[in-house]
Amino acid sequence: SKKKISYHYRFDDWEMDRRFVLIDYDKRLGQGAFGTVQEGRVLHKNLPPGASRSIIEMSALKKGNDIVAVKMLHGMFFLSAEMEFRDEIDLMKTIGYHEKLVNMLACVTDSEPMLLIIEFCPNGDLLKYMRDRRIYMMEHAVDARYVDTTKIVTQRKQLMFAMQIAYGLEYLSSRGFVHRDIAARNILVDHNETCKIGDFGLCRVMGRESEHYHSRVSTSIQNRMSPEAIAKYEFSAASDAWSFGVLLFEIITLGGTPYPDWAAAELLQRLKRGERMERPDNCTDAM
Fold this sequence. Notes:
The protein has 287 residues and is of the alpha+beta class. Helix content is 30%, strand content 17%. The chain is built from 7 helices and 11 strands. The strands form 4 sheets. It has a 5-stranded antiparallel sheet. The protein is globular. Residues 23-287 form the Protein kinase domain. ATP binds at residues 30-37, 62, 71, 119-125, 185.
């Protein structure tokens, strides 16, 4: 039997009839501690009014392409996970549409399992995208006659990725949001090889009286965090900008791990002393 909703929840123009969401359980796009992301299909004509307003300029569901990504909780989860999932859905409703974000299309919250329906990005996350291409580029001789150009990442493409992500971050900041987990694994690459900021599970809106948001996060992401975020759990547009700088390292190294020679325990103190990562060998003066 379906689990009852644990507390009152307001339904709106984003709510969708579950019958119109076709989930392909054989095509898992991602997995977290409490949920999964599956490939699915939603006919454009069945999308709710909230989604219809947000996709006027969206190419993802034009031309008959009805593939979406569906995020859901596992069958067994803590109440706190359900509340966080609801908060993520509510937050995505308020963020609004932007071409450099993974946009929300609809949700199902009137019964279990709850669903968050978002844009589908067939090229997956940027970290895997770059690492796969790094392997290809290292294994194949550079010969334009035989090289698969879709698996080559040029410096021009790296710059485009950086600019696209920067546009998305600029929009979030202008709307008063702090993402708190900017990293290559949370950037998705669409069918046009355009980067879009995704995974808004840690994203928060800053209070009107403060430009900072204080909250603990997992220590596993510290090598993407700014010194004040590590030391005081203080997040802001500035800490997102710091994480973006670390993301640039991931881009230029085609998926390299930040601070490769630094022990996690000494990260904060070394940053406080003004130490920084060395410039990657393949990073030109112009870059």
